[in-house]
Design brief:
CATH class of the largest domain: Alpha Beta
Radius of gyration: 20 Å
Number of strands: 9
Largest sheet: 9 strands, mixed
Helix content: 25-40%
CATH architecture of the largest domain: 3-Layer(aba) Sandwich
Strand content: 5-15%
Pfam families: DUF1749 (PF08538)
Oligomer: single chain
Shape: globular
InterPro entries: AB_hydrolase_fold, SidJ
Distance between the termini: 21 Å
Order of helices and strands: EEEHEHEHEHHHHHHHEHEEHH
């Protein structure tokens, strides 16, 4: 978690659930919240995440604000903070959809704050870790369900919770035993859950698994560990390296036909994907470059594309704590925004390139 603080404004997009968006304030700009037709990057954090908890987001916000009529907002979901263990992706995307409606000024909720953008504003979703599951689920899942379209999608550090937990079990027998106990309880609870009762796992056991603190339901546990994978993956098992091409065709390959991602001026229907080269939650046996190529192929077979700035960020950890890697990510995100929507000045890219060169020269080991 980050100890960073930031100035900004809260927007209540769903008062009945006490859910808000946090809009970062551009430095020294007193009129930042009155932009007509503003474009918004909505950032969705991973398990246990909350406002200003991801180290690179304030830096990203500072560069987003250099692009005319753009702002960055972090979204609070019911699953934020300690709520992740009793929520699911369907609930998350329902709330994300409400936030999109709010920003477009089309919400029917009279209790929500007055939106600061308009129907003409562009909206891009960006997820970190489990936030990537939210973004992809939003785009492909249940295509017959009405969901407001967005203008771009970014997946950063899309990892497999299942493969990450297997790696931890192999390294620590205490984690292995805790996992086996959680799995036993969860499988036995399926009958009760089907009757409407929500069964939860013992906190003292889930804490040994290494997940963020919070109450964990048996249903969410099974979704994250997906014991029937790779043949029958759960909703949360979207990014495992052993998923078949047929399975990927139903997730990445279904993005275009869902109609929830608006075609861009240069890239058509495209998403940006970045993985971290030194992601501590990904087994070292996973070939990240090959995995990205498989996802790109699935997108292309479904008449969508992976945006050119996609790739593996060198010497980057899961949440990108490394300074040089953060600038690398910012560069890729802005390139994607320029390709998909436009408005980013070339001067901004030149400054970022100079910064990256300076960081490399000062410390080549970064």
């Amino acid at each position: 978690m980050s100890n960073t603080t930031a100035d900004g404004r809260l927007h209540r997009y769903w008062p009945e659930r006490n859910l808000t968006l946090f809009e970062y304030q551009p430095s020294g700009d007193a009129t930042w919240y009155n932009l007509a037709g503003a474009n918004t990057l909505i950032f969705i954090s991973g398990l246990g995440g909350s406002f200003v908890s991801v180290p690179y987001v304030p830096l990203l916000a500072s560069y987003i604000h250099q692009v005319p009529n753009w702002s960055l907002m972090e979204i609070q979901l019911s699953s934020s903070g300690v709520g992740w263990g009793t929520a699911d992706l369907c609930q998350d995307v329902e709330e994300i959809g409400k936030a999109v409606e709010y920003l477009r000024g089309s919400t029917a909720n009279s209790n929500a704050d007055t939106a600061v953008t308009s129907r003409t504003g562009k909206i891009v979703l960006m997820g970190l870790s489990t936030g990537c599951q939210d973004v992809l689920h939003y785009l492909y899942h249940n295509p017959e369900q009405k969901r407001p379209p967005v203008d771009g999608a970014i997946l950063q550090a899309a990892v497999s919770d299942r493969e990450g937990l297997v790696m931890m079990c192999e390294r620590d027998e205490h984690v292995q035993r805790a996992f086996e106990e959680c799995l036993r309880i969860s499988l036995e609870s399926q009958t009760e859950d089907s009757k409407g009762k929500i069964s939860t796992l013992p906190p003292e056991t889930t804490s040994l698994v290494g997940w963020p603190r919070g109450l964990v339901s048996c249903k969410r546990f099974l979704s994250l560990v997906s014991p029937s994978s790779p043949e029958r993956p759960s909703d949360d098992d979207l990014f495992s390296s052993d998923l078949s091409d047929e399975t990927l065709s139903k997730t990445f390959g279904a993005v275009a036909k869902s109609g929830r991602l608006t075609p861009s001026r240069l890239c058509g229907i495209s998403i940006l994907v970045t993985l971290s080269a030194e992601d501590e939650y990904t087994p070292p046996t996973v070939n990240k470059g090959a995995l990205i190529k498989r996802w790109a192929a699935a997108l292309e077979n479904g008449h969508a594309t992976m945006a050119p700035p996609s790739g593996v960020i060198a010497k980057a950890s899961h949440a990108i704590k490394e300074h040089a890697a953060q600038f690398d990510l910012v560069y890729r995100v802005l390139r994607y925004l320029e390709l998909s929507i436009g408005g980013v000045k070339e001067e901004t890219f030149l400054k970022l390139e100079e910064k990256l060169e300076l960081l490399d020269s000062q410390n080549p080991s970064i």
